[in-house]
Amino acid sequence: MEIKKLTNKLSVGPQIAPVDVETLKQEGFRSIIVNRPDGEGPDQPNFAEIDAAARAAGLETRYIPVETGKVSEEDATHFGVALREMPGPVFAFCRSGMRSTTLWALNEAEDLPLPEILGAAKAAGYDMNGVARRIANGGETPADAEDVHHEIVIVGSGAAGISVAASLKARGPGLDIAIIDPADIHYYQPGWTMVGGGIFKASDTAKTMGSLIPKGVSWIKAAVAAFEPKRNALILDGCRVVGYDRLVVCPGLKLDWGGIEGLEATLGRNGVTSNYRYDLAPYTWELVRGLKQGRAIFTQPPMPIKCAGAPQKAMYLSADTWRQQRVLENIDIHFMNAGGVLFGVKDYVPALMEYIERYDVTLDFFHNLVAIDGPSKTAVFEVKEPEKEPRQIETTFDMIHVCPPQKAPDFIRVSPLADAEGWVDVDQATLRHKEYDNIWALGDVMNAPNAKTAAAARKQAPVVAENILADIRGREPVAQYDGYGSCPLTVERGKIVLAEFGYGGVLKPSFPAWLIDGTKPTRAAWLLKERMLPPIYWKAMLRGKEWLAKPQPLKVQSDE
Predict the structure, then answer these.
(1) Residue 334 in contact with residue 402, Cβ under 8 Å?
(2) What's the pLDDT tens digit per position in 145-202?
(3) Of 33, 400, 432, 492, which has the most beta carbons under 10 Å away?
(4) In CATH, what number is assigned to the domain containing residue 221?
(5) Which candidate, 252, 250, 168, places its Cα nearest to that of 214?
(6) Where is the Beta-lactamase hydrolase-like protein phosphatase-like domain (predicted)?
């Protein structure tokens, strides 16, 4: 936990956890301002959790959420009012402390000399020169005044971002590449299902970001605020400007925990959990081990979501644990899915249905979770069945595993790069932006109709790298992505249905059927998931070694 003093009344810092509140109290703080919106990161406690800890410690809180890079004059005014009204000293935080510092700087602009604002921020470790430029420019940031310029800029350092950087460096060691991402930790998110099933430790799925940025790639540890594609520039949180020749956009997607009424207030307690958050996956395993009887609900929201099979993976592993503990017959399992099918590629459904029957799971299709009350252990679902009037039902639970609704990050949805639904608009074969030909996108954020999985990013990264190198050489795109995605469906401990498919649900097996028949549960697929995929991810994919991921040549469409 970092505490950075700006004034005698205000200190700022990066994201805190509920357990840090007691430390703040011991340091003499009496109030906390939360400037980070809920649901911004996969390891982020929400405001309700911070507020509960603060109340228990006798501290006041104020929630003034500000989207990354969207600090407005109105936000700064609200921040100033909070500072005046709340007992001090006050601790304010966001992801890194930059937004909180920016709010303070803008609020103080009329009362303090600019050098004092810049000096205090610099002493705390924050560069406010971009904010100074904004103040001097009447509240706007001039994008033509670059702070730094790179040949290739990559937004996002998740699976897609690190992989494409490594693939580019493998092809062009001399390329000037920068990755922009404020996160300190990189997560192997496919492992969280296994954490929730008691197979992996959560710590095994996390590494420091600095250890993974490819050698020779610059790391700009900041958040993107806005895109200026017509000027080949990005504006960062804190109003700095980064110019580029070519841009790759891959920041992942946003988990919209706030899209379900009451969910944020009860996550991690009252039997409410989710493997979609790093700190909650261990709680899933705790609940599964402790449940001996009652109702267990597993939810799935409307598409698109990250790894469409993850909600039912959690269910199968939980049910198998209850089977081994000989309590399965005492547990009423429901899979409540906003969609109308168990899995989107029909070839895998027969094998999955065998496990649905084995575990006596009730399938509730067209059921979308809209509200939850943790203390009373009740959940409300909106039911939209074909040719029927929508209705709502309420049901009780002893355990509920929630998959949150998901959408593109806010700074993407409002950008010139987005389509009508908010996703980055790309050609589904070349992954090049449809309007800006020096921009590419990959991973969960783009709008190609493929499954949003890490395996998809593994295939996409070499395609983007090949096409960027071709563009640098003055050539047309040379590689294509066929929509490949993989979803290892953990149907029981020791067996997996390895779903591999491309655009249109066409099967794309990586192995011969005698080794792994993906339409059936196999031990070989389990060994692949448990023992081979993690080292492949860390030591091959993120290092530009394209095992089973060589890009396909682009097929030129005939005019005939």
Answers:
(1) no
(2) 788 999 999 999 999 999 999 999 999 999 999 999 989 999 999 999 999 999 999 9
(3) 400
(4) 3.50.50.60
(5) 168
(6) 3-109
DSSP one-letter code for 542: G
Q: Which of 94, 239, 307, 403 is catalytic?
A: 307
117-123 contacts at long range (C-beta below 8 A, 24 or more positions apart): 120/6, 120/7, 121/6
Out of 94, 239, 250, 487, the active site residue is 487
Q: Are residues 415 and 399 in the same domain?
A: no
pLDDT tens digit sequence for 52-89: 999 999 999 999 999 877 788 899 999 999 999 999 99
- Location of structure tokens 């980055």: 424
Final residue of a structural domain among 458, 480, 502? 480
Residues 6+ apart with CB under 8 A from 276: 42, 192, 255, 306, 310, 402, 403, 404
Is 493 inside a domain boundary?
A: no
| Helix boundaries (H) for 21-128 | 21-26, 47-57, 73-85, 98-108, 114-123
79-98: burial string, b at 16+ Cβ within 10 Å, e else: bbebbeebebbbbbbbbbbb
Spatial separation of the C-alpha atoms in residues 187 and 429, rounded to whole Å: 27
Q: Specify the number of domains making up the chain.
A: 3
CB 385 within 8 A of CB 363: no
> Could you report the per-residue pLDDT of 116-130, keeping only the tens digit for each?
888 888 899 888 877
My answer on whether 217 and 266 are in the same domain is no
Give Cα 173 to chain centroid, integer Å. 29
Q: Is 94 an active-site residue?
A: no
Task: Give the CB-side neighbour count of residue 115, counting CA atoms within 13 A.
Answer: 0
- Distance between CA atoms of residues 191 and 291, nearest Å: 23
Domain of 381, in residue numbers:
257-407
Give CA torsion, residues 537, 539, 542, 544, to 10 deg: -120
Beta-bridge partner residues of 336: 299, 364
> In the 8-state DSSP scheme, what is residue 532?
I
Report the pLDDT value the prediction gives residue 556, as an integer from 0 to 100. Answer: 64
User: Can you give the three-state secondary structure of 230-292, one letter per residue?
Assistant: HHCEEEECCCCEEEEEEEEECCCCEECHHHCECCCCCCCCCCEECCCCCCCHHHHHHHHHHCC
Q: Is the CB of residue 61 less than 8 Å from the CB of residue 54?
A: yes
Residue 141 has pLDDT above 80, yes or no: no
3-state secondary structure of 553: strand
Active-site residue, 487 included: yes
Q: Which of 434, 451, 480 is the last residue of a domain?
A: 480
What would the two tokens of residue 486 be? 């993989």
pLDDT surpasses 90 at 44? no
Q: Is residue 523 part of a domain?
A: no
Cβ–Cβ < 8 Å for 152, 465: no
